[in-house]
Protein 1
Amino acid sequence: MLQVDHINQYYGSSHTLRGVSLSLEKGQCLTLLGRNGVGKTTLLKCLMGVLPVASGKVILEGRDITRLKPHERAAAGIAYVPQGREIFARLTVEENMLMGMAVKSGRKASVINEEVLALFPVLKEMLHRRGGDLSGGQQQQLAIARALLAEPKLIIFDEPTEGIQPSIIKDIERVIRLLRARGDMAILLCEQYFDFARALADQFIILSRGEVVAAGSADQMDSEDVKQHLAV
C-alpha cells in the first residue's frame, strides 16, 4: 500500500529527515514513535505533500506520488488527521464533515455516510452545532470522521490522544481497531502515549534526530532497547 524510500528533508541548513524508509500494507497499523522534536510530524507532512522532500520517494499502491500536491494526494486516497485537530470552528459539524468529502463528486460529495456517523454517535446529535462549540474530545472525533468520509486507502493520525480525556481515548482506540479489522485501509499512527500505540500496532518505527533508530513488530515494543529511545 505505502512505500517510503529513503526520504530526506531539510529546513534551512538543518537536515530534518535522514533517509527515512517504511512500508505499510492494508489492514495494518504502523505506529510512529519518538521524543518531541525528532521529525515525526515533519515526516507526516512530507507524506501529505505539505512539505517537499529533497530526495527519496513516496509510493502509494505502486504509484509514485512524491511530487503530487496535497489535494492530489487526498484524491489518490490519503487522509490526514492533524495534530491539534484543525477543524473549522465557525462551520457546523455537518459542514465540517462535508469538507472531508470534497475529494468526491456528485451525490457522493453531499451525502454523509451513516456508517461513519455510527462510529461517533455523539456527532450525529450535534450536526448543526458549530465545531468551535465542541469539547476537545468531540473535535478530535469530528476530525477523524471528516477524514474517514473521504473513504481513504491510507489514514494518517498525528497524536490523536493529545489533550483528550480517557473516555474519548477509549472511543478513538475502538474506532481504530474497527478500521484495522475491516482490512480495507492502512493506518499510520504517530503517538506519544505508548500504551495506546502498543495496543494498536502491528509494527512500529522509532525516529531520533530525523532517522529511524528502531523498527519491528508489535511484540518487540516492550523491549528495553525500544523503551530507551522513548525515555525523556
Note: The longest helix spans residues 166-182.
Protein 2
Amino acid sequence: MSHGLSPTGAKILDANDDGLVAGHPAALAKLMSDGLLVPHTADRGTHRMTEAGWMALGAWRKENPGRAALADAPRVLPKLPGRQHEAVLAAARRPDQNVPGQDDPAYRAGEAWFRGSTLRKVVASGYAAIRPEPHDKSEATWEATGRPLYLTEAGRLYARQRGNIAVHRRRVVVIACGEKKLPAPGVNEYGNPLPGHPAGELYIGDYHRSLRAAADALTDSALIFIASALHGLVPLDRPLHPYDVTLKDEEAVAPETIRWQAAGLGLDDADVIFLGGQDYAALLLASVPHLHAPLAGGMGDQRGQCARARDDAGIREDWWKKAATLHSEYAAR
C-alpha cells in the first residue's frame, strides 16, 4: 500500500512508536487532517496515532527497510505516574513555573497542590529543582532548604510533549523604581508603624507608572519586579515604606545583594527585559548579563517608547525575541 506520508510526517511517526506523538505544530496539524493522528484527550491534549496512522507508518517502514528515524528527532518522554505528571503540568501552566506544594499560595487559595512525596519524586526525575543561591557553601537540596521547586528545561520539554503546553523560559520584566512615592502609612492605635504599601502601589510618579503599564502588557504581574535603590529586586506585593535613597547614596543596595536576589529569582533561566534608566541597567547587568534594555533617551522619550510598546504587540514580541537571543548567546559562552 502507499503510505502517503511526507518525509517529515514519516519521521515524526517513526520517532514515536509508543503511539503518543510530539512534533512541530504544523506537521501535527497535517497528520491530523490526513486522519493519522487524533488528540489524546486522556493525556490532556497529547496526540496519538489512529489505526490509519499505524498502517501508514507500517507501509513507510516496509518501503524504507532499516531506515532509522531522524537522529535528533525528540522522542516523547515516558509518562510520569499520575500525581507527578499532574504536578509538572500544573507548574507549566503557572507564570512562575513553580511546582505548588503545601507552602505555596495555591494551597491557601484552595488550588491544586502536591504532597512532599510527590515533589520528591519530581525532583528525582530531573523535571524540577531548587534555584542555587550565592551563599550556598555546597550543593543545596530541596529537602534541606525547603525552597520552591521550579521547572527545569527538561520539565518544560515534558510539559510540551505530554501536555501540549506551550511553555518556554519565563518572561521576566524588571522596572526602575521612582522618586515620587505614597506618604508613610502612619501608626496604629498602639503607636506601632502600620505595614508598608505594596511595592506595586508605592511609586506614583508618571515615569514609573509608564514603565509599569508597559510591564503589565509584557508579562504576568507575578514576573514583574521593581529595582529599588534601597531594597534591590522586589516583587509587586512586597510591603515597603517610603524612602529617600538614590543609587549614588551610601545606603543604596549593594551589587552583591542584587547578585544574590537575581540568583534566588532564577533570572539565569529567564528571558529578562529591563525598563528604566542606564544607571539601573548598569547595576543589573553585572548579575543578569543577558538583560535586554530597550529604552533609550530621556524620560520623555522612554515614556513614549513604553506607551507604544503597551499598545503594539509587535513591539513587545520584538523585545522578547531580542531578550531570547541575548539569553541564547549568554548560555552559549
Note: The chain has three domains: 7-63, 82-163, 170-331.
Protein 3
Amino acid sequence: MSIKVEVWGDYACFSRPELKIERFTYDCITPSAARGILDAVFWHPGLVWVIDKIYILSPIEFTNIRRNEVKSKLLSSKAKTAMSGKNVDLFIDTSSDIQQRAATVLKNVHYVIEAHFDMTDKANQSDNTGKFQEMMKRRLDKGQCYHQPYLGCREFPAKFRRWEFDTVPTVDISSDLGLMLYDMDYSDKNNITPMYFRAKIQNGVLDLRDCEVLR
C-alpha cells in the first residue's frame, strides 16, 4: 500500500556532498530528505519508508543567500577527554568562530512524495500494514509530527498534508540531473556509507522504483 504526501515551503537546500564549504543544492528533493520528512510525521521501529516517486509541482527556482555559520565542530574526542576528568572546553564561541558563507538554495518548492513502507523484524505481533497505514493517514490529517519536518536544513521548515486526489499536476520538466544522493547505508554502524543513483526527471516526476543504486 502506498501513500502520497504533499510538502511545500518557501526555501529548501538539499546540499550536494561534493561541495562542503559553501552549500549548493540539488535541483529537487533527494530520496533521503523525502524519507526524513515521512519519518518526522510517523516513525516506528517496525517499518521503514521506501520512496517510490517524487512529483514536482512548481518550477525549479534557485536563489543565493548568505548565512552566519561556525567554522568548527564539537569533537567527540573532547567529550571523552572531559569524561576522564580533564578540563577542556565543550562549547563553540560563536563570536570568534563565526563565518559568513554563501549558499545556493531552492525557493518556492512544492512536491508530492509517493511512498510505501516495508515491515521490519522489529515489528510486534500486533503490528500490521493496515494499522500503520491508518496511523500515518490520521497523523497527516491532524498535522501531527514527532518533530518539525524540514526541507534539507532545519531553518527551512516544511508544511505537509495528505494528498487525496487521484492525479498529480506536475510541471513540464524533463532533465538528467546526474548522480544524486539516494540515502545512507546504515548496515554497518562503524562504516556508514552514502548511496547514489542516476536521477532523471521525466515530465516532472522523479521515478525511483527501478533505479540502480550505486555504493
Note: The CA atoms of residues 81 and 175 lie 50 Å apart.
